[in-house]
Amino acid sequence: MNCSKCGNExxxxxxxxNSCGAALTSAPAERPGxxxxxxxxxxxxxVLGILSxxxxxxxxxxxxxxGIISLVVIEKSGGRITGRGFAITGxxxxxxxxxPLMAILFPALSRVKEQAKRTVCLxxxxxxxxxxxxxxxxxxxxxxxxxxxxxNMSMSxxxxxxxxxxxxxxRTEWQNLEEQIEAIRAGALWPYTKNLIIYRCxxxxxxxxxxxxxxxxxxxxxxxxTQGVSGAYIKKRSEIxxxxxxxxFIDEGWMTPEAFAVYYDEEQWWDDPPxxxxxxxxxxxxxxxxxxxxxxxxxxxKRAKLVEQSHRGDWMxxxxxxxxxxxxxxxxxxxRLGYTPTYP
Length: 344
Known about the structure:
By secondary structure, the protein is of the alpha+beta class. The protein is 34% helix and 8% strand.
């Protein structure tokens, strides 16, 4: 008779194929005196596979290895070893067991990655703030020019005569990365921070070398409402009454000209609130420390995400917590509010 597996012809009385050892269909499934055995490794694969559901995937790899090996052994046994179903269960179960684990781990890993980026960003801001302080120490207490596009200029809203901006550029838009790098290296803070990485948050847009801005109150923009207001617009570091509460740098997440603008006498945002590293942003203070500020208002977060790719400006909050986010930023910038707030 012919073997159904390899096609080799065998004697009629043969129970197993002389070529491949497969059991002949017309013969009993076992040789006289030889028992058909179930693979212990296949059973082990099944048990380990099932356990992977309860061990967070710890037994998944052994189950896969045992299952694959046992399948190979069963295939070559010519029917003398069974347990194919057990082996397959041992292979499939870990895959099904690991999927829920991956569903748990992926968001957690994403949060860890974002937390790492936030930490790097906070360190960048701290380094920039220390450079900002050193600049003042070396220049008779005068602050560096915080208005990027206005080096060596004098206007009604800010005298920057003979003052190179911290990032030196007269452009309102930089078209390529090389121009951005050139502007940073020509800036007044470069001698104190000769590292391009410090000027950019790791979560920043691709192709942009600068994601940080100086607050408009820190020797940047002094519009009419703050002119003559003691302690609001700052030219010298010694003029800051409470350095630990006055903002210097903010992570906007993109490159903008001038400075980060915020109203002094109006109950609305000028530049939009940036949303960075979750539902907030990183900022630094005049005493050199940096913090992460999480927005409290759902309307603040919604607005920030809406305009994440482009500025719109002049937005009024819609909730009490949204207004308090605004107050916090205005007080951090100017040291006070120039109006009576709706929510004291």
